Please model this.
Amino acid sequence: MSVEVTLPSLGVAILEATVVKWLKEEGQPVAKEEPIAEVESDKVSFEVVSPMDGVLLKRLCEVSGIVKVNEALAVVGAAGERYAGRVEGGRAASEAAPEPVRAQKPEPAARVRATPAAKALAKKQGIDLARVRGSGPDGVVTKEDVATYQETPPEVQAVSAAEERIPFSGVRKKTADKLARSRSEMVQVTTAVEVDMTEADLLRKKWKDTLARRLGIRLTFMPFFIRAAVMAVREYPVLNSALEGDEIVIRRNVDFGIAVQSERGLIVPVVKGAQDQAFWELARELDALTGQAREGVTDPRYVGGATITLSNAGAYGSVISTPVISSPQSALIWTGAILEKPAVKEGAIVARKLMNLCVSYDHRIMDGATVARFLGRMKNLLEEPMLLAMDERGM
Model:
């Protein structure tokens, strides 16, 4: 009996996702829990798996197609079945095939990534898919690309080969829309302080080998930043708030969003309940979440619902920024590159590891003095990093 494969619920405020890539062709065998498609929303990318052993009978959505949560995107059935459309109630109907369904073999001659509809149209019109520029994710050729190729004069096609057009879609498009809306709704201001990270750098070097050997944790500066921010929020909770109508809502849980750059754009996994986690627990969770996000696949349980966000652009060498807040949050913390510079310490010029620490905030909700004190508290904690490990739990 055939079974529909539906898009599972992805988490907070996620209603739909885009099919990025099909991992199985129609007619190919699939195993239970084997990935058959890769999808992405504005918050997360992940793989949809088969609910049973069998054969992929039908793909109900093309690459770049949008699927809503709980909507079917494919049908899986037993070997020997044939998909016969959908029946009342949204179930898949199937019938016995006259002979076993064999897995389709890839076309070795073309080696062009294209949707099934694009391949069919190209075959019908006698078009070489290798000559068609794909507009889908990762250059996948769509049916529309083939149709456009038909209508485009050869001389225009030659000119267009001199430029590259990258589809503005998926995570990147949705992130851009959200940030543009946030910028227009808020009165956003950025302020910054300089932090001496010399002691934190020494402590990280002292701990990192032990943590890697005993716990398998790759210790970065991120748990230092997050722990310092959580402890500062304890004293200045308005940084962890949102404006809802005529009320400022202070969030008791500090759900920290971590901005991570991936090939598909910005992904923001969330450390839930960061105020209740010890330094070592934060280090372990951050290592796991950022690693997954860089690969473009994040557990849907850890996306959405952030109350405040941290962006560590210093990992890419950036020294200063005025980052845009992600609505409905009211603040975004930004950390720059840690650079060795001359500094005055006890009347002498010495080499120190210095970093810019910035906060963009919604000026409608908080004033500059409050944010300056918040930054001052973070600065003090980062410059005396043993305090971050000593103050283990709780707000």
